[in-house]
Amino acid sequence: MFFHNSYFTTHFGNLFFCSKISVFSLFDHQKSPFRYTQISNYVNVYMKWKKDPFFDSILHIHKSAELKPIMQLKNFIVNYPNGCIPISSVSKRGLEFDISIRVARFLRQYPSVFEEFRGEHNLPWFRLTPEAAEIDREEKRVLEECKEDLKDRLKRFVLMSKDKVLPLKIIKGMAWYLGLPERFLDDSKGDLLDESFRFVDMEDGLKGLTVESNGEKVLSTMQRNAIKNGVYFGGTLEGIEFPLFPSKGFKAKEED
C-alpha cells in the first residue's frame, strides 16, 4: 500500500549521502591530512548482511521489497491508456517488475491497491482502486513540491563520482533509493532537469549524465545539517562529530 503525504515528505527529505571527507570525532584536527579518508567513487562491494531486529521490525523497511514492485505496477497502470491494463500486458514481465511469482497472483494479493474486473473477451483486467488512485495523485503533488530537492539530490549523486559523470544505467539502478520518479531521466521537455544537467556519450556506447557544477561545493546532508547547527563551517579538513552507537535490539557477537 502507498503511504500518506508525510511519508513522501520524510522519504524525500531524509535520504543522505556519504561525505566527501569522512572523519571521526576522536581525530585531532591538527593531525596530518593522511589521517583522513577521502571517498570519491563507487565500487562493487560484497558484504555479509547483519541482521538488526529493531530495523527489521519497521514496516517501511520490512515491506520495502514488496513496495517497489507495487509502485512499478501502479505506475505502469497509470500510464496505460484509460488507466487499466489486460493481464496479458504484464503477465510475461515478472522479472522486469522484480516479481518472482505470477504477476496475476501478485496483483490479487493487494486488492486494496489493484482492482480486478472482466474486460474484452472475458479476460481479467486490472485498475487502481479509488483509494490507490487518490494516493497516486497525492504522490504526484508531493513530487512536484519536492522537484528542486530531487534535482539537488541527483546533482550531488553525480558530482560525487570521480569524473563528475555517471552512466544512466547506474543512475536508473539507484533511482528507487534516491526517491526519483521513473520519468525523471526521460525529461525531453526539460521540465524536470535544468540546464546544468547534460547527457553525454561514454565508453562502450553507454549514455551518461554529467552536471555543470560552476565551482559549486558539494556538501553531504550531514555537512549541511552541521552547518545549520553551527558546528561546521565547510573547511577542507574540518571534522564533524557524530555519535556511533548501535540501534535498539542490535547485539554485536564477539567471535572467539
UniProtKB/TrEMBL annotation:
Question: Which one Pfam family would you cite for this protein?
Answer: PORR
Recorded GO molecular functions are: RNA binding
Q: Which residues form the signal peptide?
A: none
Q: Which InterPro entries match?
A: PORR_domain, PORR_fam
Domain (PORR): give its ranges: 50-255
- What's the protein called, per UniProt? PORR domain-containing protein
